[in-house]
Sequence to fold (669 residues):
Amino acid sequence: MDAVSLIRSGQETETPWRFRLDELGWRDMVTALGQDTLPFAGLWCDGADVHALFMPSPTQPLAATLALENGRYPALSPARAVSSLYERMAYDLYGVEAMWAVDVRPLVDHEVWSATAPLDASPGLAGGRKGQISFQPSETLLAAGGVTGGVGPATGGTETSLHVAMAVSGETIVAAETVSGYAHRGLAARWRNSRLEDACRLSGRVVAGCSVAHQAAFSQAVEAACGSKVGPETALIRVVLMELERILLHLHTLAGLARGAGALLVASRCAWFREKLLALSAPVIGSRLLMDHCVPGGTRLREATGLGDLCTSLAKLGDEIYPGLATLWQTYPALSVRLSGVGPVDAALLDRVGLDGPVARAAGRDCDGRRTQRVYQSLWRLTAGRQGGTAEDRALILLDEIGESLRMLGEAGPRLGLTAGGRVDLSPDAGEGLGMAEGPWGTVLYWVRLHAGRVAQVFVHDPAPAALMVFEAALPGQDLADLGLLRQSLGVNAAALDG
Amino acid sequence: MGLIRAVFDAAFRQGGTRLKPVGPRWPLLLFHIDTGGCGGCGMELEALASGPYDMEGAGFGFVQSPRTADVLLVTGALTRTMAPVVDAAWQAMPKPKGVICVGGCAVDGGYFPENYSVLGGLDRKAAIDLQIPGCPPSPQQVLDGLCSLFRQRVRGAGGPQAEGSSSTSS
Fold:
């Protein structure tokens, strides 16, 4: 029996796509997953149960639930490598143990918190460590000679806080792994029993640069839990915001890549184009990083009726500047050569950890959540097409996507006209819902449980955990000086990872 | 953490003993630490450093080591894991030195007040020389804030000025 059938054979719950399994059923599911390609979206705990979410099709979720027995459950990491990060997070937050897990090291709790297992009904004592944290290197790193170098968490740069511990031979990285948790703000605890508005604000601050994707997915999840759906105009406004966010973050990433590769002129041009777009958009939308504009039931913009004209203006600005920027990027001396040797990523690795988004699209994978979303019909068209999987391919995919998103804005502008979108009145009581958006780095997915009109629990799927695993796998053999380029080109972000 | 005792130095202010001249030839060097936030303030600092704001012309620059920094520029809500890192960076900085908090999180935690993993900003834990609020503050607001240290006003920097000041997130 395949994994989907095994999950569906479980006991039905109040949510039609979530089934409760017993421990034997869960174990059978893990065994079946070993021979199955069912896409895995995440695992989380709520103190009493552990839940695993899968996506049998891009629009159809399927979840399995298992009641914890003595605080333990069979791990999914033997069948889905990325589950390891979710299992380690669940242990740090709730103290629940994943049996037969492939990695049981702490992920975010480094014994400096004011309580261990802080989300458990009876949290443990405070961690006793004073001063900077220490960490336990994996056996792979020890076998490669132990830690002989490290970068972060404070580099003076503007990236989020992450430590990369490495075994280095000369200038070449032999083995490496990351130490995370520096940016853990306790989002899961803050979401518990929060008001919808507060929870939405938090979702916009999981990771900057992807705020629209997070808040759109959160809002969709809340709307689904309430049994409501926003109208096509509001959905189109959200699409416009998401595409604008994609353009802005991709330009930010490309500027960083160009700077890291020594092409300062290209970096400056990307940053300048981004500022030109922001100069037009921020006064109409109301912010530069597009936070707090997607809210449950609708959207909230400073001048909503000006959005249609704004899209037309942005597309026109794109027509003026984008072709020159694309040519500059492609012809700038040595930029392609510098990036082409950095971080080749095997498509099989991406499949194994389940990373989608532009990183997968640059390695020959044809995956884009926009393809299946109704609101993108007649807007989206294929942007994949590169196979190499190097930092150069990823940069060119980002560049292509900027052009495509500018085109989409140009088409969306006349459709929006003077509409302000409107709001749907929600009656949040109790229920579960799922929301999904194609963020700049891949699928962002929210599972939200409402109770008594408030948010009871939230689970977020972000590309960050899978991107981290790809990053760690791509580091060996790389030049030490390319670490920053590799990190940027894979979209590794500690804020999204740590939660 | 035995939190940093920011010895504010009059050298950075007009009217005091100016140990460190200020101006295009003598930039005030900033060492940035993200102490646990969403990364939005870092993105805006990046825009300030690389966008058309002429930050260096106004007399400021970012450095990659605290040993060469004049000012510790903190963004993020100060997690318990990052607190010792901030302390170590502060200890490594030469005197005179100061602390600037950029963004609401760095000041008082903002949307991330104190909990099991977060200390909730540097306010009341250290002497802060300058607070630049906002979630996040725009690059122009950050630059204006930095210039206010010297009671300077930024001379007409062209395009970005107007758009920056009108575009802070809620």
Q: What stands out?
A: Chain A has a mean pLDDT of 94. DSSP finds 17 helices and 15 strands in chain A. The CA atoms of residues 191 and 199 of chain A lie 6 Å apart. The radius of gyration of chain A is 22 Å.
